[in-house]
Design a protein that fits this description.
By secondary structure, this protein is an alpha+beta fold. The protein contains nine helices and six strands, in the order E-E-H-E-E-E-E-H-H-H-H-H-H-H-H.
Length: 210
């Protein structure tokens, strides 16, 4: 907070028949990044003996892309603050989920990007598509995912049979990359090109290899 005290205006004096007095006010400073450039390469650095997140930046592909990121960040920062790598992971998940699922019919739930990947994988599995056909029953598929750490019900698997299977709708995030690594151990021919956004498969493969 910073001191924002000031004298009342001439119009206020006139309308309220008031003396010239000081109005005591405090204002919260907004020191968040303005997103005029795209943040990349997040890392922690030491600032005055404290750890804080730092980035490089690159130009956005368009003004519209920058504006969309700023609007989404304003929504995210209402309950968050970008200071640590955990914060970055949360923001990345929020941003990538919003832009990747737009127009796909896939809703982003409290699970975030992991939930998107989990539901799309289930749909691919029950439709026997994209190298996700495992020959498991709904019950065994739900049990497999749950044992892998991604809670799934039998009803979710049954309902997936009636749902559309959108391509390129899985967000590229730290959380989906972690999940994909687990899935590839059981489904090594899974078609990642169909799952992730077009033009980002090289990025996905690099992050899987890390």
């Amino acid at each position: 907070m910073t001191d924002n005290s000031h004298l009342i205006s001439t119009s206020e004096q006139w309308l309220a028949e008031s003396d010239l007095v000081m109005l005591k006010k405090e204002r919260r400073l907004n020191l968040e990044f303005d997103f005029k450039r795209k943040l990349v390469n997040p890392r922690m650095i030491e600032v005055d003996g404290k750890e804080h997140i730092s980035f490089d930046s690159v130009p956005w592909r368009s003004a519209e892309e920058a504006q969309q990121a700023r609007v989404l960040f304003d929504g995210w920062r209402a309950d968050n603050c970008l200071k640590t790598m955990a914060d970055w992971e949360s923001w990345e998940d929020y941003y990538e989920s919003a832009i990747t699922t737009k127009g796909t019919g896939i809703k982003v739930t409290a699970e975030g990007s992991v939930g998107v990947l989990r539901r799309i994988f289930i749909r691919a599995a029950v439709h026997k598509q994209w190298g996700c056909d495992c020959g498991l029953t709904y019950k065994l598929l739900s049990e497999q995912l749950t044992e892998l750490g991604y809670a799934t019900t039998v009803d979710e698997c049954k309902n997936a049979k009636r749902a559309k299977l959108p391509e390129h709708a899985v967000p590229v995030t730290a959380r989906t990359i972690k999940f994909v690594k687990v899935l590839l151990e059981h489904y090594p021919v899974m078609d990642l090109y169909r799952m992730f956004p077009q033009g980002r498969l090289d990025e996905v493969m690099m992050r899987i290899a890390d």
